[in-house]
């Protein structure tokens, strides 16, 4: 596993894409096919799920180190990452120096795939007592860095700053296969079997092997400026829905619904899966899943559906969903992606006329810039986040290509809020109070409106962190109640009435727009004002 | 506010009322005892200063030549009022001292900042037995554990060699007093060392105090034929991102600090490298000092004071309390990262830049 640990450290040590690319190429060139398959699996953000509970990780660490539980919890909070905490604590047994731990002689070296097959996967079948024994024994035999990477593999995604695209570019160069071909072959669920690399390398792969897979999603860039469009008549616009992007695949009599994150969604949306059975075979539609009942429901409702597999009748009736199609990628078994967008769209509309199993997202051919502006102004009334602007002659690209699809969001809503709770962040922000909860006034009280994590500069974060530590009123576990004093302008992509939120309002994508040092807490917004804003919009 | 027969915590700092002096005071007092010359321990405006002989020139370099200084060599006893005072090496930076106080046979020890692992520049730490211990806890969590000095220095030397081969200048950010000299002494024989003005001032003061260092240069005085990309450049963290750095060409930047032990802290600063080099005691050695000091009462200060105190109380069975200090605790983003108050050497550096 040493080679994979070194690859991880090399990727972690640099922010330069070229250096990450080189490190991955070196690794893929020299490792076995078995290891390459697993490395690809982990580097592209996949994980073996549901292996160990936090309590097993903690139990094994406490048993190994003899530390009291409260001290483990405190360390975890400061470090902000379980695997890293464990790697430090494991090194902290009093009789074990870091140097002794690094003596390679006592390390029986297993390869990455051996570690996965012999240690990681069996963990899933063990009870907690066995798990703790295995973890303890494994950590004992590892260097600090190996403990870190190994524990990362069993606790969650690797997050080492490489995208799947970047991994495939490196692997593609080593295998001599274009990365977009690899991307298609690796869509959906796959297992990192030793034969995977051989399959990926095959010149002509029979379609059967990949029969259920979606196509790599075409993604949009934010539109920097209207002038980027050039001749506006070459473009068409759609609403940018705030739902779940999905491809509905119907092949060989079966339906697969795929999210952009390549999760199979059939179990969450059995209603859609059933409706889609009526599609012809060899058909792939790209679109957006929305919660819909007399209009579009808040994203939080859709999330409820997403989070529930095999939903009951009550939930199906309460939160029905609807699929808004906007692209046709395959028809009668033929891959249409290289055809121009306008042509694909015509075919989609034609198909829709004969099969109303899905809805269709309206499209406007643009004649003048004013139309775009006017359309964007109406986006909010349509419960849309903004516009998608697509070039009429563009193919359906793999990933994010500049100049074919643009997203143009509406200006966000902003509300001045008061900081009321703070919690330490994780990862890059570990050890600093960076996770904030904001409130607005309801009479004399502040009620929670949202949580936000992003938007401040590093310098501001340090200042807020200091404020939090010096102005803590109460502590509840890791959460600190702070003196209501700091005011921030919070921006939202979406804001709606909601009976399930204490404030009566549900927000989407809150982020800190700026720190209003010029405002006093009493200048912050009142809940009623926020609600008025919402009512005005609905009229 | 904690109060004992020997030491009382007062707004101006830890005070020995029997002796009429305050240790590392943060407000004006008549008589100050200074453990070491970092700016959060050695402040302006005291009536008189008592420090170790090595600290004296450093203190003058930081606070000006006109201050009134009395020195006391390590191990020698000095009677002040009802108290007997002696200094014992703290191993933190050159001249750093732990202060032993004896009032009527009750012995207390104020460690100041300390490090038990020896390095090539500071006088090696001495364990002192006492009844009451006041210990710093900057890195008082079991996640902090340091490597041996030679391992650290060879790591830095390897990074420097790699950069040279790639034609990049190695810029190592480090606290200008103590850490900088420790690094110069530790790896300075590997090639030419260039220092920032702030570091130069402290180098001169240390050399004046008798410390021997390998040759070092200001960037303006680099000998003919020496390429900057072959050099190791040592600068205080506050120099990062300033125009002074523009003269360095293509660089690889690293930070030498105990805070670099955590990945989050490393990534937050967007550095190419973080070397875990600390001038403070780590967790296992902190516990060992507490145990071997024989102290029955342990007061904790700076950093994770509450945590260490709780551990000492519950797991070591000693009487312990955390002192409330003016400081929130030394953190990466404050004292080590360059929010130093202006001192003579930072002023010198600023003038050099202008």
Provide the fold topology.
The complex is a heterodimer of chains A (539) and B (354).
Chain A: H1 2-12, H2 17-30, H3 33-43, H4 54-65, H5 69-79, H6 82-90, H7 98-101, H8 112-123, H9 128-140, H10 144-155, H11 164-175, H12 179-185, H13 196-201, E1 218-219, E2 221-222, E3 235-241, E4 244-251, E5 254-259, H14 270-275, E6 283-291, H15 299-307, H16 313-318, E7 321-331, E8 334-335, H17 341-354, E9 359-360, E10 364-365, H18 369-378, E11 384-391, E12 399-400, E13 405-409, E14 413-424, E15 433-442, E16 445-452, H19 458-470, E17 472-476, E18 479-482, E19 487-492, E20 494-497, E21 505-508, E22 511-515, H20 527-538
Parallel strand pairs in A: 1-12, 2-13, 7-9
Antiparallel strand pairs in A: 3-10, 3-11, 4-5, 4-6, 6-7, 7-8, 11-13, 14-15, 14-18, 14-19, 15-16, 17-18, 19-22, 20-21
Helix pairs in contact in A: 1-2, 1-10, 2-11, 4-9, 5-6, 6-10, 11-12
Chain B: E1 8-10, E2 13-16, E3 21-23, E4 31-33, E5 48-51, H1 55-63, E6 69-71, E7 78-80, E8 83-89, E9 97-103, E10 106-110, E11 132-137, H2 149-165, E12 169-173, H3 179-187, E13 193-195, H4 197-208, E14 217-218, E15 232-235, E16 251-256, H5 263-268, E17 273-275, H6 283-293, E18 297-303, H7 305-316, E19 319-322, H8 344-353
Parallel strand pairs in B: 3-4, 4-5, 5-6, 10-11, 11-18, 12-15, 12-16, 13-14, 13-15, 16-17, 18-19
Antiparallel strand pairs in B: 1-2, 2-3, 7-8, 8-9, 9-10
Helix pairs in contact in B: 4-8
How would you portray this structure in words?
The complex is a heterodimer of chains A (539) and B (354). The model of chain A has no long low-confidence stretch (mean pLDDT 86). Helix content of chain A is 38%, strand content 23%. In chain A, strands 14, 15, 16, 17, 18, 19 and 22 form a seven-stranded antiparallel beta sheet that branches. In chain A, strands 4, 5, 6, 7, 8 and 9 form a six-stranded mixed beta sheet that branches. Chain A is of the alpha+beta class and 539 residues long. Chain A is built from 20 helices and 22 strands. Chain A has three domains: 47-155, no CATH class; 218-409, D-amino Acid Aminotransferase, Chain A, domain 1; 413-538, OB fold (Dihydrolipoamide Acetyltransferase, E2P), CATH 2.40.50.140. In chain A, helix 1 runs antiparallel to helix 2 and helix 5 packs across helix 6. The radius of gyration of chain A is 26 Å and the shape is globular. By secondary structure, chain B is of the alpha/beta class. Chain B folds into two domains: 8-144 and 279-323, Ribonuclease Z/Hydroxyacylglutathione hydrolase-like (Metallo-beta-lactamase, Chain A), CATH 3.60.15; 149-277, 3-Layer(aba) Sandwich (Rossmann fold), CATH 3.40.50. Chain B has eight helices and 19 strands. A seven-stranded mixed beta sheet of chain B has the order 7-8-9-10-11-18-19, covered by helices on one side. Chain B has a six-stranded mixed beta sheet with strand order 1-2-3-4-5-6, with no helix packed on it. In chain B, strand 2 and strand 3 (21-23) form a beta hairpin. Chain B starts with 7 loop residues before the first strand and ends with a helix. In chain B, 55% of the residues are buried. Classes of the chains: A alpha+beta (539), B alpha/beta (354).
